[in-house]
Design brief:
It is a single chain. This protein is mainly alpha-helical. The protein contains 13 helices and no strands. Helix 6 packs across helix 13, helix 11 packs antiparallel against helix 12 and helix 11 packs across helix 13. The relative contact order is 0.16.
Length: 396
């Protein structure tokens, strides 16, 4: 990537990382905090965690379409302000109902579609996957850091304090978006009658729908296995919760080391679809192996390494594939549908994964994830490799 593209990718990666750090820090500590609140039940605690994904899913398409018409940066800044407001509400609330409202308000700051579209606007097609990988690495690093920082900050300032830190991080991202990330230049001229036509166009494409279904399954599986993996580490492998980061950190680092050469193989050697389909098969295999590997620490580490190696590759390559298959004038709408599918998958994974865990145990969660990945593999086989074309983005 050139200096312009590094500035764009680096700035947006920092925004993603800061925003996601606050969200991820809640995951390992919220359930323990919430169960001591009045009227707390497992279903309501699960709703408090999952409602963020639901409101994100509902609003990604409107935010994405709005970014096509109003500009990427104003929409992203508005989303960060909503996210910060929800974080403040959750921080000051001591009632689970109001925390649920705060989490829903956090999710209403649905900026992923506009942010991904901005990345596509500011990068050349041949370098777009690299930019997405930079963002994916930043999110992965944020996730890894959050697993370590969450329990530490919980002991120091509690879960309300973590929500407050999340609000500060979101507000700190606003000048970064406005002054550091480059401007995309004039948006492509519009030849469409309205928002509904934009949505009909992106939702009628079988190729785009294959990617939407894929990201739904990818994030459903991710959310679901994190209902079961912590329990397996503690109950089966005998690893105390405060030491779980000692598994997650090396697994994430090693999985990124696996991702980089495979990304090179797909992009530079023309095997993008082969690598993509192979990664889905690896995700299915890792989920299936977890059914039996959960009994030992070594088995869990090996299966998680395969899972996250495939996950990182898919997470980086799918937005790039979508940006190539989607008309530049509809990129925000296309990214909106994609991001809505992603967050709806996270909500469904948490909800359905909780039901599976309650009725079938951890093995049911892992087996369900494997079955979803096999379904995805069938649909992904019909994905058409994108044809290289000159992008309408400002950086090309």
């Amino acid at each position: 990537m050139n200096a312009f593209e590094w500035r764009a990718a680096g700035g947006l990666a920092t925004v993603y990382a800061a925003r996601m750090l606050g969200l991820f820090m809640i995951l390992p500590v919220f359930a323990l905090f919430a169960r001591d609140l009045a009227d707390a039940t497992p279903v309501r605690v699960g709703l408090a965690l999952g409602i963020y994904g639901l409101t994100q899913a509902v609003l990604q398409i409107p935010f994405g379409v709005a970014s096509d018409r109003l500009g990427r940066k104003p929409v992203i800044v508005a989303g960060l302000l909503l996210f910060a407001a929800g974080s403040v509400l959750a921080a000051v609330s001591r009632d689970l109902d109001w925390i649920i409202v705060g989490r829903a308000l956090q999710g209403s700051g649905a900026i992923a579609a506009a942010s991904n579209a901005l990345v596509a606007d500011l990068t050349r097609e041949a370098r777009r996957t690299q930019a997405m990988l930079v963002i994916g690495i930043a999110i992965g690093a944020s996730f890894t850091g959050a697993l370590i920082l969450g329990p530490v900050l919980d002991a120091w300032i509690g879960v309300p304090g973590i929500f407050a830190v999340t609000a500060v991080l979101a507000l700190a991202c606003i000048p970064l978006v406005w002054f550091v990330v480059p401007d995309p230049g004039p948006m492509p001229s519009r030849a469409h009658a309205g928002i509904l036509r934009d949505l009909r166009t992106v939702l009628s494409s079988s190729q785009l729908l294959r990617l939407d279904l894929g990201v739904f399954i990818l994030h459903a599986c991710l959310t679901a296995i994190f209902l079961a993996v912590p329990a397996a580490l503690s109950d089966n492998a005998g690893l105390p919760s405060e030491r779980h980061w000692q598994v997650y950190l090396p697994v994430m680092l090693a999985s990124l080391a696996l991702t980089l050469p495979l990304m090179y193989l797909g992009e530079r050697r023309g095997h993008l679809k082969t690598v993509f389909v192979t990664a889905i098969a690896a995700l299915a295999a890792a989920s299936a192996v977890l059914v039996w590997a959960q009994a030992t620490l070594a088995g869990l580490v090996a299966a998680l390494l395969l899972f996250f190696g495939a996950f990182n590759l898919l997470e980086a390559s799918m937005p790039s594939l979508l940006s190539r298959l989607c008309d530049a004038r509809l990129r925000g709408a296309g990214m909106g549908a994609f991001s809505s599918s992603q967050f709806l998958g996270a909500f469904a994974g948490g909800f359905l994964g909780g039901i599976a865990q309650d009725r079938l145990g951890n093995a049911g969660v892992f087996a369900g994830a494997a079955a979803l990945c096999l379904l995805w593999l069938v649909f992904a086989a019909g994905l058409r490799p994108p044809v290289a074309r000159v992008s309408a983005g400002g950086a090309d």
